[in-house]
Specification:
Order of helices and strands: EHHEHHEHHEHE
Radius of gyration: 14 Å
CATH architecture: 3-Layer(aba) Sandwich
Strand order of the largest sheet: 3-2-1-4-5
CATH topology: Rossmann fold
Helix content: 40-55%
Number of helices: 7
Oligomer: single chain
CATH class: Alpha Beta
Strand content: 5-15%
Length: 130
């Protein structure tokens, strides 16, 4: 399964020309691919909109999953400590939570967020496309 980060959904909605948006659009045009929309991602995307009904309906075409529970919260904290031990700071807790969810569930993440890159290099996060 592929989790699409809010960074890509937002770029898609703003019609930005990025490699990640092209990848997302290619996946969508192939039919409903195995894409997951996490509840955290749904929230981040909807936060920036004046009206969210149409976007929410479009995102709900895909599987929307709960991402955080005690296990994921604990794993995210451990990942944060692991990176801090290497002198790397991920600025947003939500990025740690999404990465921990993907790692624990063996999902790949399609993203356009530089804070996520160290999680791939040092913590086993799988990035899509590989």
């Amino acid at each position: 399964m592929i989790v699409v980060d809010s960074s890509v959904w937002i770029d898609h909605l703003r019609d930005r020309d990025t490699a990640e948006v092209a990848c997302l659009r290619g996946l969508i045009s192939d039919g409903l691919p195995p894409l997951l929309v996490g509840d955290l991602v749904l929230c981040e995307v909807l936060l920036g909109l004046a009206s969210d009904a149409l976007v929410e309906a479009a995102l709900r075409r895909f599987d929307v999953v709960d991402m955080v529970g005690p296990g994921i919260a604990t794993r995210a904290a451990a990942l944060h400590r692991q990176l801090r031990g290497r002198g790397i700071t991920v600025r947003r807790t939500i990025d740690m939570l999404i990465a921990a969810y993907c790692i624990e569930n063996h999902h790949s993440l399609l993203h356009n967020d530089r804070d996520v890159d160290p999680l791939a290099r040092h913590c086993g996060l799988r990035i899509f496309p590989a």
